[in-house]
């Protein structure tokens, strides 16, 4: 099977884009971004407070570029460490994901893994780019990357199964997006992946573990409900296709 090439690098402009998207433009993750970015970048917080609306992006650009200049060595060594760690498992991870998702990587020849300088982990489905954070250890960056890489093949599969679903449904706050977020964790806990990336188990958005599946069904969290259902499907020898078709019917009212 043809696997995508994973290009691991660190491009300052992509960190600028991430800050712009989460701290300047309207978006659903601003509070998280404030919590995850500013403690490591108090200088950026001060600069953005005083910047006018029109020069916010320019301010971010200058800040990020000077941050890169000051920390270039550390950033480069983070990229090198990730490359070394990923080289040991990357191809097996990609082929295992395809096996679990019951599809292939056709149409995704390349994924860009950007090692950014802010602690946000976006994925851009169209551009085939995702980001980790240079201050993560490889044992943290690799589970983050696995989660993001899973999104790419998950939505490829989803589009094959449900060709009528639009790309807008793959983004926050659509229920289809929520299911993709909680299922990334369940998929990443599959034994075939766990043996390659054991630290990925439990690596997901805690929100889905903190709310009950339904108000009147409090014996499972939203994550727990779908994780159990997925395990039952696997145990019965059913494919992920069947699982996703059934799961899709259950997400509409709950998330
Ligand atoms: Zn995600």
Structure, explained:
With 255 residues, the protein is α/β, with parallel strands linked by helices. It has 2 domains: 140 residues, no CATH class; 94 residues, no CATH class. 58% of the residues lie in helices and 11% in strands. It contains 10 helices and 6 strands, in the order βααααβββααααββαα. The chain has a 4-stranded mixed beta sheet, with helices on both faces. Strand 3 and strand 4 form a beta hairpin. The longest helix has 46 residues. It is globular and about 55 Å long. It binds zinc ion. The site of zinc ion has 4 residues, from helix 5 and helix 6. Zinc ion binds next to helix 5 and helix 6.
Short description:
The chain has helices spanning 12-24, 30-37, 42-50, 56-101, 138-161, 175-188, 191-194, 207-210, 222-235, 240-250; strands spanning 5-9, 110-116, 123-124, 129-133, 212-214, 217-221. By secondary structure, it is of the alpha/beta class. It binds zinc ion.
The topology string of helices and strands comes to EHHHHEEEHHHHEEHH
Radius of gyration: 19 Å
User: Ligands bound here?
Assistant: zinc ion
DSSP summary: helix tally: 10
Global outline: globular
- Say how many strands there are: 6
Structural class: alpha/beta
Main sheet properties: 4 strands, mixed
Strand content: 5-15%
The average pLDDT is: 96
* N- to C-terminal distance: 36 Å
Percentage of residues assigned to helices: 55-70%
Side-by-side strand order of the widest sheet: 1-2-4-3
Tally of distinct domains: 2
Uncertain segments are none
